[in-house]
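retry 2 of 3: previous attempt timed out while embedding pyridoxal-5'-phosphate. Reduced batch size to 1 and resubmitted. Inputs unchanged:
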Amino acid sequence: MHHKRLFIPGPTEVRPENLAALARPQIGHRSDDFRTLYRSVTGKLRRLLGTDGKVFLFTCSSTGVWEAAIRNCVARRVLCCMQGAFSDRWRSVAQANGKEADELRVDWGRAIRPETVERALATGKYDAITLVHNETATAVMNHLDEIAEVVRRYSDVTFLVDAVSSMAGARIDVDRLGIDVCLAGLQKAFALPAGLTVASVSARALDKARTIEHRGYYFDFLEMLKYDERGETPATPAIPQIWALDAQLDDVLAEGLEARFERHAMLARIVQGWARHHFAVFAEEGFESPTLTCVANTHGISVTDLNRRLGEQYAAISNGYGMLKEKTFRIAHMGDTQEWEIRGLLATIDRILGH
Ligand code: PLP
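retry 2 succeeded.
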């Protein structure tokens, strides 16, 4: 099979060393070896996320932990910040689980503003709020610090954050920000295959879960807590992914968190500079994502054709998502992507488009 180097916003390219880590011999999930692995991984994740709270491992993609967060942490009514395909869908998950869920909606390409969050929470109607830190459909990154500052004023509101396309690519200090659940699948900025999702879960979220009935079975935080105390998961987890995560977290910490986040920011500057020169950036100014760029297709090129020609050579980018198909295209610069790879991609696109 002709491998296309992935510049799509997930799954992202996995380094051969981490692919090899997936192929380690299996171990029993009730063994000392597993408990050592579990504690190693969750300890490193706590460093990454700046938390002394719990970090759980879920064998599912991020959608499963959207559902888990809703079932365990929404008692009455949840406010869903909506600004693109993924943040919109979290509300559908809440409704599918029988929860009252209101929208706080902005146009695609725009960011969620702390003032509007403040106005909505001040109604006193909500006991939880969902926010997608980095909306992958539009490449808009919200100012999490400012929104968190507002949410912290409402001590009875549980703060549920999807950091699916930002975690491990941008700084998120869970405890300092007061985030109750912060979740991400591994196939984005962690640069690992899909199949496992990690999430921090605060003591406050666990206390709330104790008051909530029908939390479900597979994703019950209290069951996960019980097993976490032994260094295990309730059901058989995706052990290969956990091996690979352990190896990758060593590399992430060796690179240095600051250096890793700065590399993402630097790649974003390169891609966004290029996009502004030839096209335009779709995201509202000041909210451009460090992990991916959504390029507004101001010249009406055929994105499908561009991607086909890139694919014939060596790479894949993403078309616009949903209603943004052909109107935009997305280039991911997250995970382990290096400057030379991004510069090579942009040079190849320039050659194809005759820039
Ligand atoms: N949240 C965000 C921000 C995403 O980008 C995605 C997928 O791309 C999801 C959630 C859903 O992830 P999954 O399809 O892996 O469950």
